[in-house]
Amino acid sequence: MLRAARGSLHSLLVSPRTRLALLFLLAAASSAAAQVPTSAEVAASERFVAGSRAFDDGDFRQAVADFRAAIESGEDGPAVHYNLAVCYYKLGDYRRAETAFMDLARQFPAMRDLAEYNLGLALAHQNRRADARNAFERAQAGSDEQLAELATMMLERLAATDEAPQTRPWTRLIDLRVGHDDNVALIDSASLPAGRSTDSSLAELFAYFSGPAGDRPWRVDASAYVVTYPDASEFDQGVVYVGAAREWRPGAWSLDAGPGVSRATLDRDGFEQRVGVLMNARRTAGNVTFAARFAHDEIDDLEARFAYVAGTLDQLALVVDYAIHSGRFIATYYVERNDRADPGVSADRDRYVLRYRRLYNATWTADLAYEYRNSDYAELSPAREEKRQQLGIDLSRSVSSKWQVVMQYRFADNESNDAAYTYDRHRVSIGMSTIF
Question: Mapping DSSP to helix (H, G, I), strand (E, B) and coil, where does residue 327 land?
Fold first, then answer.
């Protein structure tokens, strides 16, 4: 049985064909002796062979499509799942590779040591060092002696780099969209009073940048968001945020905390300024990730006519992210407490979001989300309560190694004991996004 070659982090990945082609051929021979293959089995075999050929040619995106097609045609052995995971790794899609290796370990116990080792590589490439260390330790404790030796070497390498300053590459995201909104007056981020509804097309830009601050364990974050409504320019908005965070890695936890400031405009005039602190905690155990986020903001109005927004805002989010076959299930609970100058924008909110993310193949990803939000305006007289349900559907298709086409639809239904705040909202958009 062939093993991984020694060398760089990238080259330590075990070859999918040298180790698993034999397994597949043995399985096929056994099946042939028992019965004549069905047309579906022949199709699955052909797609597996095509995927292996594409892999050998270095066309990993085509190999992913072929291996996915083989699975959909009924080929469900360890070989095809392992090869698919390796292709994601070769493409630099370490998040999908992570999910695929975790699925492999769960579905095929005989492959667990190999899957855990390669999972550690995928996690290391995401700079999730504590999670990578846990995966390598599981491979080290397995029955495969050579994989255990390789895992020990990777643990030593992680330990050596832990003692040196860590450099992390910059993350940059750009998202451009156009669309239509039939209720642009009701925008959560602006906390606008719902005096009326306006129907308009829209164009929006979001940009995000994050990276290391020198050799110290600090990260710099910055973002900008602009949305314009040609038929309702009084609701044009812009937000710029700059923050910093210090990062810690105590054991299996990933922690960061730091200050941030943002300034927002509305109708091209100064709207509000927020100065606050943000704290995050994250831990992965097996195929489940737990996360918590807390933010406190002191808010000042930037124009006298927006004095009603001044005050404070506290937010807490608790997240459970569960990796399942070909996707993820994410449950989030949000708590929001407002203490603003105007009780009409000073709600206490509880929000629940359930999201299912499905990775269909190398190019298509779908997100389906359901949200329930309860808002209590207890300081108003009479008090107002709102219950909003929202359905979200996102489809994205990769058109190159960096760019994706993203389509998004949102439907919201808000019920209130004050009829003036009962509404429906439809929002649809399409655009392009890239991470580089």
Answer: strand
What CATH code is carried by the domain that includes residue 404? 2.40.160.40
Higher pLDDT, 348 or 363: 348
What CATH code is carried by the domain that includes residue 36?
1.25.40.10
Residue 402: the pLDDT is: 79
Nearest to 179 by CA among 232, 228, 240: 228
Same domain, 317 and 202: yes
pTM above 0.70, yes or no: no
- The domain of 122 spans 10-162
Identify whether residues 359 and 278 lie together within a single domain.
Answer: yes
Between the two ends of the chain, the Cα-to-Cα distance in Å is: 38
DSSP state of 185: T
Q: Are residues 116 and 150 in the same domain?
A: yes
Residue for token digits 């292996």? 52
Q: Is 170 exposed, middle or buried (0-12, 13-18, 19+ CB in 10 A)?
A: exposed
Beta bridge partners of 245: 219
Domain total of the chain: 2
CA distance 289 to 296: 24
CA-to-CA distance for 51 and 74, rounded, in angstroms?
15
Residue with more model confidence, 326 or 158? 158
Asked, for residue 4, whether it belongs to a domain, the answer is no
* Cβ proximity of 381 and 366 under 8 Å: no
Please check the confidence at residue 50 and state whether its pLDDT lies above 70.
yes
**Which tens digits make up the pLDDT trace of 143-171?**
888 888 888 888 888 887 765 545 557 88
User: Is residue 5 in some structural domain?
Assistant: no
> Which pLDDT tens digit goes with each residue over 185-214?
655 544 444 455 688 999 999 999 998 887
Whether 8 has a pLDDT exceeding 50, the answer reads no
Q: Is residue 344 part of a domain?
A: yes
Evaluate whether 352 touches 335 at the Cβ level (below 8 Å).
no
Which region, left, alpha or beta, applies to residue 45 given φ > 0 means left and ψ of -120 to 50 means alpha? alpha
